[in-house]
Write a structure and sequence with these properties.
- The protein contains eight helices and eight strands.
- By secondary structure, the chain is α+β, with helices and mostly antiparallel strands.
- The chain has a domain of 132 residues: Gcn5-related N-acetyltransferase (GNAT) (Aminopeptidase, 3-Layer(aba) Sandwich), CATH 3.40.630.30.
- Strands 1-2-3-4-5-6-8-7 form an eight-stranded mixed β-sheet, sandwiched between helices.
- Strand 7 and strand 8 form a beta hairpin.
- It is globular.
């Protein structure tokens, strides 16, 4: 079974959205909402070299664009990673899990689009890519983000004290969430 986003048949459609691989041409659309106060509050202000970073192949390889009626409304990171294993099982652990992240245009929040997009990403991870585990994290104060994780069936696994620097420069507490393939499949029988 493939374990790379490039092996998926793109684009992927949901009831209201289309997910596709990001291209260099998406940089301006993504930058237009990543710089908004409600997004940069959690992700930080986009760097001056945003376009160069966005165009880096290693970045484009893990970024999906979320469209509604042909307009970019958000993006999803699907970072496929190796799981820890002893050396003799390394081939089984290669590309066995993924970390998710997301950002949505502020005017598109509260309409269920983020939930729909993350559900589609989870379906890709478990059904199309055959991954074992998917994780996501957020600052404790980012209520919308952790509620989204809970809505899609992810379970809170960690609470860490002041482990990440918030864009304000303050060390903040974080939550870590995860979902296993068997949990996903049980939920979607």
């Amino acid at each position: 079974m493939p374990r790379q986003l490039g092996d998926v048949g793109w684009p992927v459609s949901t009831a209201r959205l289309t997910l596709r691989r990001a291209t260099v041409q998406d940089a301006d659309a993504v930058l237009s909402y990543r710089g908004s106060p409600s997004v940069s509050e959690w992700m930080g202000t986009p760097p001056e070299d945003f376009h160069a970073r966005f165009a880096a192949p290693e970045r484009l390889d893990l970024l999906l664009i979320v469209e509604r009626e042909g307009a970019v409304i958000g993006d999803l990171m699907v970072k496929i990673e190796d799981a820890w294993s002893p050396p003799q099982l390394a081939s089984q652990a290669k590309g066995a899990q993924a970390e998710l992240g997301w950002a949505l245009r502020p005017e598109e929040t509260g309409k269920g689009y983020a939930t729909e997009a993350v559900e589609a990403a989870l379906r890709l991870c478990f059904d199309d890519l055959g991954l074992h585990r998917v994780t996501a994290g957020c600052f404790v104060a980012n209520t919308a983000s952790y509620r989204l994780m809970e809505r899609v069936g992810m379970r809170r696994e960690t609470f860490t004290l002041k482990n990440a620097l918030h864009p304000s420069g303050e060390w903040l507490d974080s939550y870590g969430y995860a979902l296993l393939a068997e949990e996903w499949h049980h939920r979607h029988l």
